[in-house]
Design brief:
The protein is α/β, with parallel strands linked by helices and about 575 residues long. The protein has 19 helices and 16 strands. It has helices at about 25-45, 60-70, 70-90, 105-120, 195-210, 215-230, 260-275, 285, 305-315, 325-330, 370-375, 380-390, 400-430, 440-460, 465-485, 485-490, 495-515, 520-530, 540-545, and strands spanning about 10-15, 45-55, 95-100, 120-130, 135-140, 145, 155, 175-180, 185-195, 235, 235-240, 255, 295, 355, 360, 395. It has a four-stranded parallel β-sheet with strand order 3-2-1-13, sandwiched between helices. Strands 5-4-9-10 form a four-stranded antiparallel β-sheet. Strands 7-6-8 form a three-stranded antiparallel β-sheet, with no helix packed on it.
Amino acid sequence: MENLNQEKIFIGVSWPYASGKLHLGHLAGQNIACDIFARYHRQKGNSVLMVSGSDSHGTPIVFKAEELGITPEQLVDSSHKEILETFEKLSLLYEKYTSTTTQNHKEVVQNIFLVLKELGYLYPQKSKQYYDEKVKKFLPDRYVRGTCPECGALDARGDECPVCGKFLKPTDLIDPYSTLSDSKPILKETEHYYLDLKKLEKPIGDWMDTQSKHWRKWVREFSKGWIKEGLEPREVTRDMKYGIPVPIKGWEEKVIYVWIEAVVGYLSASIEWAKSIGQESKWEDFWKDPKCKHYYFIAGGNVPFHTIIWPAQLLAYSEKYSNDSLWDKYKLPGESKRESLNLPWDVPANKMLLYKGKKMSKSDNTGMSVDSLLEKYSPDLIRFFFVRNAPENHDREFNEKDFIDCNNNELVANIGNFINRSLSFVNSKFNNKVPQGQLDLDVKESIESIFKEVGKYIEGCEFVKATEAILKLGNFANKYFNDKAPWISFKDNLSECENTIYNSIQLVNALRILLKPFIPQSIFTLTTLLNIENEYDANIELTETGKVSKSENNWVFVPLNPSHIINDPKILFAKIEEKEL
């Protein structure tokens, strides 16, 4: 089953702020879908590099640390550990999950900053920004609050309104005040570097015209709207001391703006991964091979940073490779090929998960933590629910009753019911031995059709449709079992009963393979129940050893032989009573 048509797949996942526990919006936005996508491609035998990390700089970190009375470093350290623990519970599997606090990240960010400056894409400019006279500090965007000019919300931030989602500048706010002293800030002159997006507007627009045809419609239209309105220069430095220092003499009191810095993390994490496996140039296989497809899994609020600003940085930086002086002066760690960096292939962003009508946000203390849900429910149910009900094209409200219904009506009544009935029949009537039989034509065609369907949907980042297709096979399997009525044929026509159960076990095994990327812990249990040994699983190897050593296409259905011995059945999914709400 060697994959002779192996593809290279790079997956960048937006970096959660290291300012506390993950909330459910992180799961609905990016973290579950990206893991299913990566597991599927590894299972198919493709070469995958999925990276992310804890976003450990920026105003939200400093703001939260001050609120808690600790240093930003202390907050980042504890939050990063909590995030990793949550990911492990949910079986979220990265080739590299790191942090923006590494020396490697600092070097890569400063390298890109200096190249863009030398190429003329970054320039200094003086402007007036809000300043708190009481604490004698310039106020980064989130330290300024006021009334949203768009919807009238009273506690909008200087970068975004949490109610209507409008991107803002501090000077847009009505009746602004400083969060440090509650006083009214004044406008005072300061100097910052700006990224000249106007100069990059045409190449970004041309790239988007050719590349965005397969993007989600709302992502494409939202991004093109930015181009249509006209791109303006964007500030890329901040008056702060915590963060990546601006690498220019006289600018020691300023840092590189977190959103310009954080997206560079996709590249720096890839470089860090290559170092960790002892092949320092290996990152170039994913960043400089034009056949490698780059996917960025993000929540909706981050779209322009991944469809406008990050591509702008990549387009500008790639001019380095045709400049002898810059190529010699600014090589990235392990860099050996004078070839341009890949631009995004797709940005499968999800819309927002709402909680009591509001967007979930760490900084605004809105929503529910992932850990609070893990205390009550299984990790696989959480995974399945947040991909089954993902806000792919419109905002969705989280309701715990919907969560329980998903478990009881789909995992229990559909998938679990069929698996348990089939395994229990083999246990009670055939002494745990798969009976004789051959694949019925309708069973064979259904399995083959669903494998193609689910694979197509996952590759197209249509995860809700992928779950619908799997549940469709579950419905077929339950109907097949009911229509064949093996409890009757066992008495009247044993060979027909044997054939029915043989086919039922094949359907169980097909569901097992299809569900591997979605609910890995439950499928590990089912693999044990079916007594399947020596089956190569790239995701298990990566979990256990940190690497994938084979290129095998295991996204294929392989029938279990007659006389194969299975183990005693066990309930995979338990019903949840609504009183647990």
